[in-house]
Backbone:
């Protein structure tokens, strides 16, 4: 097994594939793309856009299986104020609108929910995806990827923000994250929380 490495644009498709597989049953994605076939079609495109946004504006750290050289874990650290929206992001939305109006409307609803828990302003690093393949979990990779992201954010003197469902809050709390916002939606029948981590010298 390799150590943690910083990924680059050449890894974007591998990152998107790993995210799509790991988040396939996530409640937000299952709500937006109601059928497995729809998720198989759209998640790689959505996750590809997210991966490229993080690669261009911040950093993505990953872990590879040494034997197969395949990506088995990754964490995306997006810096919103550094990101310039790409034409591909716009056309992905247009494509979804034209081919599946219901999914487009559900995605807009989910985006409103996620935006409602964000901090005001854009001066932060956002953890926009942390994934470890199921068979490689409980080996400390998630903790090490978070530590790498915290070091990355501390060097930039920026806090880290993330959104998560209730069952994941205790996991992030052990790394110093604190809940600062919460929103609910009847459509997904669950509340979403915004968590923040402040580097020591920024918090003081």
Residues:
């Amino acid at each position: 097994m390799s150590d943690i490495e910083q990924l680059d644009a050449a890894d974007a498709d591998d990152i998107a594939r790993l995210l799509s597989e790991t988040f396939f049953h996530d409640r937000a994605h299952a709500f937006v793309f109601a059928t497995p076939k729809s998720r198989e079609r759209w998640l790689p495109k959505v996750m590809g856009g997210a991966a490229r946004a993080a690669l261009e504006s911040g950093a993505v750290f990953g872990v590879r299986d040494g034997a197969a050289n395949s990506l088995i874990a990754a964490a995306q650290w997006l810096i919103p104020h550094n990101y310039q929206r790409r034409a591909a992001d716009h056309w992905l939305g247009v494509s979804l609108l034209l081919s599946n109006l219901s999914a487009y409307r559900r995605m807009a609803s989910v985006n409103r929910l996620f935006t409602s828990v964000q901090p005001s302003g854009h001066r932060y690093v956002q953890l926009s995806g942390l994934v470890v393949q199921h068979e490689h979990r409980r080996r400390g990779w998630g903790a090490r990827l978070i530590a790498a992201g915290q070091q990355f954010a501390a060097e930039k003197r920026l806090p880290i923000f993330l959104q998560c469902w209730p069952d994941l809050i205790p996991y992030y709390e052990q790394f110093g994250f604190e809940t600062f916002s919460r929103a609910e939606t009847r459509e997904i029948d669950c509340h979403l929380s915004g968590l923040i981590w402040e580097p020591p010298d920024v918090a003081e």
Q: What stands out?
A: The beta strands are 5-6, 59-64, 71-78, 125-132, 160-164, 178-185, 190-197.
